[in-house]
Write a structure and sequence with these properties.
The chain contains no helices and eleven strands. By secondary structure, it is an all-beta fold. Strands 2, 4, 5, 6, 9, 10 and 11 form a seven-stranded mixed beta sheet that branches.
């Protein structure tokens, strides 16, 4: 069956780094674009980054450009989100999501485009 597990969250200080992992099973991982989203209580879930299935094209929210890096290892069925220079405003639950097919600049943030979601991992950066 389909299973998606995120890990790597935690409590860190401003300026620190974390690497989130998303391990997926139950389908052909390389056929899926991988998105990372985050959500804080009372706010909508927002797109952070995405890596396309077709050619590993990457997309980033303006708020994380230059600080976060998304990558994938299809041999390990794993996607990563390297987060550097973390800020208090990065505090959120981070979710991994999979979308069958390639991603686009106009569509990668659209939640309903994604077929599968993980359970989320908490990242906390106190002010």
């Amino acid at each position: 069956q389909v299973q998606i597990v995120e890990s790597g969250g935690g409590l860190v200080q401003p300026g620190d780094s974390l690497r989130l992992s998303c391990v997926a099973s139950g389908f052909t991982f390389r056929d899926y674009s991988i998105g990372w989203f985050r959500q804080v209580p009372g706010k909508e879930r927002e797109g952070v980054s995405c890596i396309s299935s077709l050619d590993d094209t990457t997309f980033y929210a303006d708020s994380v450009k230059g600080r976060f890096t998304i990558s994938r290892d299809n041999a390990k069925n794993t996607a990563y989100l390297q987060m550097n220079n973390l800020k208090p405003e990065d505090t959120a639950v981070y979710y991994c999501a999979l979308d069958l097919g390639s991603a686009s600049g106009s569509g990668w943030r659209v939640l309903y485009e994604y077929d599968y979601w993980g359970q989320g991992t908490q990242v906390t950066v106190p002010s």
